[in-house]
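Worked example 3 (structure in, sequence out).
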């Protein structure tokens, strides 16, 4: 074992010892007092040093810091900006400041403003007021005493800078400049870039920068960036302009791209980031990208994008990367991934299972049950498809050869195939609840169907280095009485194998192997739910006993009443499955409730005819349609839930109704029915063609409410300014069309009332077209593409649907590419050819909600081969789950 591993084990043992040691309360108070005194002295010393550059302790206090030297809010960190730029901050504050700037877009923007010399008003974050009891202050101080030793190890990895250059300029087309507060100077190819050294491409110029981790960054004209590196990863600070990043696989940490309003993080992929005056846009070409902005986190997959501003309409990815010198390569790679995903979607699955020999062996208290089919055949077919595409595509070969984890992925797939040849038709993973909120180690079970498995298992174990030890046991009495701290046991008994780090769990399994189904779990409703799934045919199956888990997730006295009103506390079981039926892949989720659905859980109505969707044409690229219970009752339930946690809500509601003369319940909700649809239906360029329809029972009352709201909104505008909103009417063929426009936005809403619905669209022409197609029966639900996605079941209607057919969007984009090269058109045409429509639909039943999909909406794609959630990631996830005491 290496020295590093020995040191890590020593550290683990030391931490475990500290956790187990019982400390005298008086000693804790004395230690806390010493720490508190030391922290206060350090704070005063830091403030004295900071005051040398014009930031006094009193000045910091004026910014909103109650105690000198304490960094709590964004104002506290922004007050340190002058001292940080003057390099006068102590090292500890530098680390804290840079770590905060890395994760806070607003403060990062303030720092960039300070560097540029501009003056900008920053909206302060709302302060969280915490009332900390005196005893908690001492507890926090005592925790710091122990935490300093543990936290120093993590701080070493995440806060301390890394030595060496951050990157190298690989090539320059035109002019590239190194810019600073004192001036600028040209940068030639081969030049190294140091920490936070900003470079800028000139007009009509571009550059390629190779980062220290091997990633390649292509810079567009008028683009500026700088690089920083810590042990947590490399960060590209994009001040302005556009870049395309080919991220190398990160062995440790992540690669980040930080703009003034979002943070992008990846482990290895290809994506584009554009930072402009309106905001930022992130588009993904390959892999998965995480984007954090405005207190939300979103994962983007190939072909997807995100904009941080509503003023930035979606743009075709082709346009986002059209400036790249590697445009043909990027488009071709997108097309290859799309083609391969379609082939993988068409690959036959492992087949349905209508019973399970492993279910009767599940121990008592199980709250998670995962059944995975034996995917050895699927892996072999997938590898063959991938190899065939490699042989046919030079672009794909170039990409594959650039990956640094080929051997690891190949070994993983070979291992899966090796084990699958010895095992039965499924592998089951379970987790049981030991006590309230405490769960056992994972249990993995399978049938052994071929001889020689024990020898094969021993051979595989001998090849593992650095991981937990695996002990093979054939007699349950040989299992130890307590769990191993760094070991796993494999029980081989009567043609079954069970693997866990908890000997007690394996002893329970051994008893069930002797008498299958004799435990209490076989008598539970959770067991019956799983058994019913097998009877209907199971392939990939995940079952969760929410009835046992949810109570442990509610920790305050207020939450239970809210959860009860919302209907969430009634959730009983969650079942998610994926299987092939009739040549179609179906993904299905069922959430059952202990009682008839109530609260928000009951808002989704029972399956019913959908009239709103009849205003959507067969050419729609994206559609959401649903039916809900009576809107007035739903809004009343929501208001009641809010009032239970906010005593001021009723007063605020009354003030709104008094100021506007509008009752939300009676004037807005009461006129509405429960049938709603929204669609992107038509060209996306230059303006997206959207439609919206909602059932209306009282159109006169609703129109009066709309007119009142527009008038009240205009009254709020400062005197002397133009009205913020305008509402106009026109008569066409005896029908009244309404148009709402804003003086501050290009958004225009055109609507009218048709056959009991309010129908709205982006333009009057689109609105007229929707009405004509609805009358002629030219609707989405009558199209062949939509009907081909309907799975056979006993239902006549839906409660909700989500439909997408991005091929139509790609077709419109390809039609406007007269000025591009033929190979670029071919790449987009390939994307269109391999973009199949998909449908997600829901059924609201009295005591359950069923959700299903067909097509490739939830399908596994190429990225799933090595990414989270894919079938071939299961062995790696299980390995990680069984290594709770080892350093990852």
């Amino acid at each position: 074992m290496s020295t590093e591993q020995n040191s890590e084990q020593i550290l683990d043992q030391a931490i475990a010892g500290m956790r187990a040691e019982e400390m005298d309360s008086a000693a804790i108070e004395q230690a806390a007092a010493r720490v508190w005194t030391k922290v206060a002295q350090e704070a005063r010393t830091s403030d004295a040093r900071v005051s040398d550059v014009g930031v006094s302790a009193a000045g910091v206090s004026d910014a909103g810091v109650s105690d000198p030297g304490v960094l709590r809010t964004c104002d506290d960190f922004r007050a340190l900006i002058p001292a940080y730029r003057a390099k006068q901050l102590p090292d500890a504050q530098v680390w804290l400041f840079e770590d905060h700037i890395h994760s806070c877009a607003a403060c990062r923007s303030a720092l960039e403003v300070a560097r540029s010399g501009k003056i900008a008003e920053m909206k302060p974050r709302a302060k969280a007021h915490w009332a900390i009891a005196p005893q908690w202050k001492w507890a926090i101080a005592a925790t710091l005493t122990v935490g300093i030793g543990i936290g120093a190890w993590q701080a070493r990895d995440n806060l301390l800078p890394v030595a060496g250059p951050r990157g190298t300029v690989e090539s320059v087309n035109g002019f590239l400049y190194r810019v600073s507060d004192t001036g600028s100077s040209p940068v030639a190819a081969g030049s190294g870039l140091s920490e936070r050294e900003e470079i800028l491409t000139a007009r009509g110029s571009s550059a390629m920068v190779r980062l220290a981790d091997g990633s390649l960054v292509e810079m567009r004209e008028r683009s500026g960036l700088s690089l920083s590196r810590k042990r947590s990863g490399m960060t590209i600070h994009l001040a302005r302009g556009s870049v395309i990043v080919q991220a190398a696989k990160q062995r440790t940490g992540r690669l980040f791209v930080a703009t003034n309003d979002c943070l992008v993080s990846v482990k290895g992929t290809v994506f584009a980031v554009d930072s402009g005056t309106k905001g930022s846009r992130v588009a993904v070409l390959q892999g998965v990208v995480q984007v954090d902005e405005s207190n939300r986190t979103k994962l983007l997959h190939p072909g997807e994008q995100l904009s941080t501003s509503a003023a930035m309409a979606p743009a075709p990815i082709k346009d986002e990367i059209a400036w790249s010198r590697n445009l043909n390569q990027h488009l071709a790679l997108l097309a290859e991934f799309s083609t391969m995903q379609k082939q993988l979607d068409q690959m036959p699955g492992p087949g349905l299972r209508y019973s399970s020999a492993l279910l009767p062996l599940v121990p008592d208290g199980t709250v998670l049950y995962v059944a995975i089919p034996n995917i050895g055949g699927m892996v072999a077919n997938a590898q063959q498809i991938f190899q065939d595409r490699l042989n046919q595509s030079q672009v794909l070969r170039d990409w594959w050869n650039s990956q640094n984890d080929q051997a690891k992925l190949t070994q993983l797939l070979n291992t899966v195939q090796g084990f699958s040849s010895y095992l039965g038709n499924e592998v089951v993973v379970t987790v049981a609840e030991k006590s309230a909120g405490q769960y056992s180690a994972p249990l993995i079970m399978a049938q052994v169907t071929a001889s020689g498995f024990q020898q094969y298992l021993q051979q595989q174990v001998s090849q593992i280095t650095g991981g937990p030890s695996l002990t093979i046991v054939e007699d349950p009495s040989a299992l130890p009485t307590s769990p191993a701290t760094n070991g796993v046991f494999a029980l081989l008994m009567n043609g079954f194998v069970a693997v866990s780090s908890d000997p007690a769990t394996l002893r329970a399994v051994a008893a069930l192997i002797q008498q299958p189904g004799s435990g209490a779990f076989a008598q539970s409703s959770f067991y019956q739910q799983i058994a019913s799934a097998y009877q209907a045919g199971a392939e990939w199956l995940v079952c969760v006993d929410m009835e046992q888990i949810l109570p442990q997730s509610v920790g305050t006295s207020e939450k239970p009443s809210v959860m009860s009103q919302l209907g969430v506390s009634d959730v009983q079981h969650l079942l998610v499955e994926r299987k092939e039926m009739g040549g179609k892949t179906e993904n299905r989720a069922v959430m059952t409730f202990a009682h008839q659905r109530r609260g928000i859980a009951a808002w989704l109505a029972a399956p019913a005819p959908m009239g709103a969707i009849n205003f959507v044409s067969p050419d729609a690229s994206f559609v959401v349609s649903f039916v809900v219970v009576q809107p007035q009752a739903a809004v009343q339930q929501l208001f009641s839930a809010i009032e239970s946690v906010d005593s001021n809500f009723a007063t605020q509601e009354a003030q709104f109704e008094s100021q506007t003369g509008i009752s939300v319940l009676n004037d807005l909700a009461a006129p509405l029915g429960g049938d709603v649809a929204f669609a992107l239906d038509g060209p996306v360029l230059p303006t997206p063609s959207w439609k919206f329809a909602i059932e209306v029972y009282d159109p006169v009352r609703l129109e009066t409410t709309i007119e009142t709201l527009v008038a009240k909104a205009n009254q709020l505008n400062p005197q002397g300014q133009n009205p913020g909103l305008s509402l106009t009417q026109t008569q066409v063929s005896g029908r009244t069309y309404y148009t709402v426009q804003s003086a501050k936005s290009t958004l225009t809403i055109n609507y009218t009332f048709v056959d009991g619905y309010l129908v709205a669209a982006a333009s009057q022409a689109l609105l007229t077209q929707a009405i004509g197609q609805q009358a002629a029966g030219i609707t989405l639900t009558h199209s062949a593409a939509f009907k081909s996605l309907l799975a056979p079941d006993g239902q006549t209607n839906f409660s909700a649907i989500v439909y997408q057919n991005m091929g139509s969007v790609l077709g419109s984009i390809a039609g406007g590419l007269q000025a591009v090269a033929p190979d670029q058109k071919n790449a987009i045409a390939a994307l269109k050819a391999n973009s199949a429509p998909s449908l997600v639909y829901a059924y609201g039943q009295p005591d359950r909600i069923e959700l299903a999909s067909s097509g490739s909406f939830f399908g596994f794609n190429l990225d799933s081969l090595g990414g989270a959630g894919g079938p071939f990631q299961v062995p790696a996830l299980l390995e990680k789950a069984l290594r709770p005491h080892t350093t990852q």
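Notes: The mean pLDDT is 75. The radius of gyration is 31 Å.
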